[in-house]
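Entry 14. Ran structure prediction on the chain below.
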Amino acid sequence: MTLRSITEVIGDLSKPIPRRLLKSKTVGGQKIYFLPWHTAVKFLDLYAPGWSYEIRHLVGIGGKLVLVSRISVPCAEGVIYREATGQEDEDVDKFGDPSSNAESMSLRRAAAKFGLGLHLYEGPPEA
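Output, structure tokens:
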């Protein structure tokens, strides 16, 4: 396998995500769009072959489960990694459980540090 440069990987992961692949939810009265974790994995598989994911730290703080994860991407410059946090109320009353929700958030945030879905923080996606 020929390794690509980190610039190429980030360039591909930074491409706008088609709206049909996004999910939406209402938070604080505002509709937000997000990339489901399983779709993020597919993009990483496509544009960052050989990537890996690990949970670095997990702790309960003030009724919240806080998780730190790392995504590592092998590239021409070596293995480049990004870390991010995810958190969820320990007594979650919505879909999922605290650990899977925090892990999903953490994985998506770490992937965003490589450019994946980063454009979603700038406002609603184009149709």
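The longest strand covers residues 64-75. Will compare against last week's run tomorrow.
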